[in-house]
Structure prediction request, 347 residues.
Amino acid sequence: MLTGASGFIGTAIDEQLTARGDEVVRVDALIPQAHGTTAEVAPDVHRLDVRAATEWADLLDGVDVVCHQAAMVGAGVTVADLPLYAGHNDLGTAALLAAMHGRGVDALVLASSMVVYGEGRYTCTEHGVQHPAVRSRTALDGGDFENHCPRCDRALTWKLVPEDARLDPRSTYAASKVAQEHYTLAWARQAPARAVGLRYHNVYGPGMPRDTPYSGVAAIFRSSLEAGAAPRVFEDGGQMRDFVHVHDVARANLRSIDAVLQRPAESWTAYNVCSGRPIPILRVAQLLAEESGGPDPQVSGEYRPGDVRHVVASPALATEELGFTADIAPERGIPEFATAPLRPAVD
Prediction:
């Protein structure tokens, strides 16, 4: 079963599952934040809400593994979004897990996110690994965007984040993703069952939604360029991220589907899904502008409360245990994304 089958990532996973001959039960609620209010459901997709999974649990009969992609995504536009994230992500996952247990389905691949880490890993040249607090508005208003050592106040250096790093959610979406992981871990122990969690980094590629505040930054930059406007880059553009192509994310899911079916009961493992090639946000905007022939990016100095400075993960565990390594580097995939087909604007 594939939840969120009509979504950006779900569609890419579905294409690869179908291509290799898997039988897929497709479920999607087509929530308006991602699909608009007039989206039509494909004939092979069950338009159902995971929050009511116990009501349609018969669809789980004969299912070997669930690939759970359904979720509200994005950082959360306003505090008013909190119930949407708690409902679709927290309650939806809990209801799906309960329905799976009732039908004897004991294998899950969960779409999680790198946002569970909050700020990434940092070191001080004098004091070693540090865990910076939330950046103050005073510092941000003054144009100081870096994290500083709490002991000597030097600017900290970012490092790759491993999967055993502490979880430190700093947005509505992040809190809901941590909750999904915790529900899944509890289910795996109690059922007993087995699960793999995939902590996606910044996913981009063909089929990405356009013109929605819940879209990723690459799509927002591209929309600006298509309108003839310069992409607006927050802070100083030096924020380090990992951009991973949706085709690679789908490949990671197929590897995980195969792997989780071989895992013992009461098992849970999380993996970073990333390109392994960090890139500054400003460079992403520049690559898109160069490829499209649009205006140069504008570094605004603005910031969003709750944003983190740098979060770049280690791909080593996914390579070692899943045999997954991303094929498409950002330097290749981001320019291609400048002209890739996107989903229509959300109405």
